[in-house]
């Protein structure tokens, strides 16, 4: 494989943190060689837009230098790009020649995105799925505005790193959570981050749809702090330990954050209905959403899987970001506690891509 001699780490950049994960191979086994999370001060990145380039460059350099575990000896990396401005969709094209696909995709993009094709970077790949029809091909398209991508490229290069791939967050998240070893039923992934929540529909071996919501882990904690008139740190601990348990603290925490979670439930239902009405109609052999996986730091809310399962009438479970890294029989994690590793899901997915070079 091209770049096979390279070893690349995953670098997940968001508004409030940078997370690094480096996986190295030992025979057929992957091991976590290095990892770190660094907080990003406010106003350096806002809604995915880099506002203070020099400060972000310094922070990335510091992150690489201070990584826990093995010293980072490679400059190659796989970097996440923010979900908020992305376009990602599976489209169906008639069976055409290979050299005609790129031109057909341009027409699809021009018809479906609100900016000029000249102003975006886009990539695509054929999706080899078990429900493909002999009369068409399925193509996964990803596109992002150049005005968003170029500053990230400049920052990474100025940090003395060499980006092999820029990847939309949802693709990396799904890579970490979805087991590579066989087909899976359609899944709905909820990635609850510090400042937003990503909803991802995965079916037929690919991400079919992704979107972002302003509902976030920080908002839940702020709701608790305000409702109980306590500081942010104590509210964070109560979210994790008490959460949605009606028998603790008289159910106060539950009642405070229930409206926010019901808002999330409404959005989830809307996208599940969209999948059933629009996407599923294209692939009648497939079933509806059978399971929901949670990840991100906000997944560490006591009682959240049960609450969502009851409201959505669907199985809900905490996702396993080590699915394609650790041996299934491994009982202990390599230096990163499972609860903490949920916030590293995207970084681990990027690191898996890096390990494949």
Helix content: 25-40%
Distance between the termini: 7 Å
CATH-defined fold name of the domain at 183-318: Nucleotidyltransferase, domain 5
| Structural class computed from helices and strand pairing | alpha/beta
Look at the structure and give the CATH class of the domain at 183-318.
Alpha Beta
Description:
With about 350 residues, the chain is α/β, with parallel strands linked by helices. It has a domain at about 185-320: ATPase, nucleotide binding domain (Nucleotidyltransferase, domain 5, 2-Layer Sandwich). The chain is about 35% helix and about 30% strand. The chain contains 10 helices and 16 strands. It has helices spanning about 55-65, 100-110, 145-160, 170-175, 215-230, 230-240, 250-280, 305-310, 340, 345-355, and strands spanning about 10-15, 15-25, 30-40, 45, 50, 70, 75-80, 85-95, 120-125, 135-145, 160-170, 185-190, 195-205, 205-215, 290-295, 315-320. The strands form 4 sheets. It has a 6-stranded mixed beta sheet with strand order 6-3-2-1-7-11.
Brief write-up:
By secondary structure, the protein is of the alpha/beta class.
Question: What are the defining features of this structure?
Answer:
357 residues; alpha/beta; Nucleotidyltransferase, domain 5; 6-stranded mixed beta sheet; 35% helix; 28% strand
Write the SSE topology.
Elements: E1 9-13, E2 17-26, E3 29-39, E4 45-46, E5 49-50, H1 53-65, E6 68-69, E7 76-81, E8 87-94, H2 101-112, E9 120-126, E10 136-145, H3 146-158, E11 162-168, H4 169-177, E12 187-192, E13 197-203, E14 206-213, H5 217-228, H6 232-241, H7 252-282, E15 291-295, H8 304-312, E16 315-318, H9 338-341, H10 345-355
Parallel strand pairs: 1-7, 7-11, 12-15, 15-16
Antiparallel strand pairs: 1-2, 2-3, 3-6, 4-5, 8-10, 9-10, 12-13, 13-14
Helix pairs in contact: 1-3, 4-10, 5-6, 5-7
